[in-house]
Amino acid sequence: MPLPIQFDAQRMDLSKRVQVYSTVDASPAAAAETVIATLTLTGFADTAIISGAFLFGWAAYTVGTSGTTVQLRIRQTNVSGTVKANTGAMSGSQHGAGILTADDVNGFDTAPVGTYVLTMQVANGAAASTVSALVLGAILI
Fold first, then answer.
1. pLDDT value for 90
2. Domain range for residue 93?
3. How far apart are CA 100 and CA 102, in angstroms?
4. Does residue 136 fall inside a structural domain?
5. Burial class (CB in 10 A: 0-12, 13-18, 19+), 52
6. CATH no. for residue 114?
7. Which residues 6+ apart lie within 8 Å of 115 measured at CB?
8. Based on the structure, what is the number of domains in the chain?
9. Which residue ranges in the chain fall short of pLDDT 70?
């Protein structure tokens, strides 16, 4: 027999465990891997983290001239930080130049840090791509 529900989340403050960022910081110029969002976790220093952080990212974007593939990554700290989630090079007709596309990337970090970045790279891009909306978040578990 399943355990009965003991309580609900009606009066729980999850602000230290669930944090989200939704401002476009930049759009990729040509083929460079670019930080498109930065999430700095705040107020969680005294929060018990048992398993780690579930990381999630989503972006809507239009690929610039000559772009052939798109890759989204979630990294620790900055563009050269450890990769925690990676879509790989996504190709196909929905990832070509001038097409509005939306993709997501998810990962898990067993040793959460204070800052995560969502990056985007467009292979063979000869002009800037445009990120129109995004979300980068972490749930501390």
1. 95
2. 25-140
3. 7
4. yes
5. middle
6. 2.60.120
7. 38, 39, 40, 41, 76, 77, 78
8. 1
9. 1, 3, 5-9
